[in-house]
């Protein structure tokens, strides 16, 4: 179980005050733990990682409240700087208002900016109704995303929940991955998310969780 969980972790450091020294330590720790990737702020790129460790970053983070073309440009620059995966934050208001055509167009703008790279769409599920979660997942799928993701971990409404992960997994039906992120701090939390349908985990407490396992 430990190896299975480790292999789907994006070992994450997105605190705005994080330093180069801390990012270097994150990469070293990820290599030791055998995680799938490190997820770092776009300003930290490029980073040097050992072979087999992937590099992820974020765009429109953490509010999502910027224009689609800005998100697309940020994502493209991140890929130029070595990111293999981009976790974009949606304009959450579009999901709240049910403007799913506009949401799909926004996601597609980022998708088109990073062809061949993995795109994860952060829908901020704790801030959405079930209907809005479903609509956001369907818009992500229609726009060509690879994953839907619960949370930034920075929203006051909260992070991942088993209910949201299950709803997201049921909605995408295995056609997209599901990333659970935000507030996952114990091995029991991590296992519950996987059991609910998560295929990737965004964790900052990776070492503590893997040591529990």
UniProtKB/TrEMBL annotation:
Pathway membership, UniProt: Carbohydrate degradation; 2-deoxy-D-ribose 1-phosphate degradation; D-glyceraldehyde 3-phosphate and acetaldehyde from 2-deoxy-alpha-D-ribose 1-phosphate: step 2/2
Recorded GO MF terms: deoxyribose-phosphate aldolase activity
Taxonomic superkingdom: Bacteria
Keyword Nucleotidyltransferase belongs to the record: no
One CC-aspect GO term: cytoplasm
Record's catalysed reaction(s): 2-deoxy-D-ribose 5-phosphate = D-glyceraldehyde 3-phosphate + acetaldehyde
Active site residues according to the UniProt entry: 87, 149, 179
Keyword Cytoplasm annotated: yes
Parts forming coiled coils: none
Entry's family note: Belongs to the DeoC/FbaB aldolase family. DeoC type 1 subfamily.
Stated role: Catalyzes a reversible aldol reaction between acetaldehyde and D-glyceraldehyde 3-phosphate to generate 2-deoxy-D-ribose 5-phosphate.
Name of the protein: Deoxyribose-phosphate aldolase
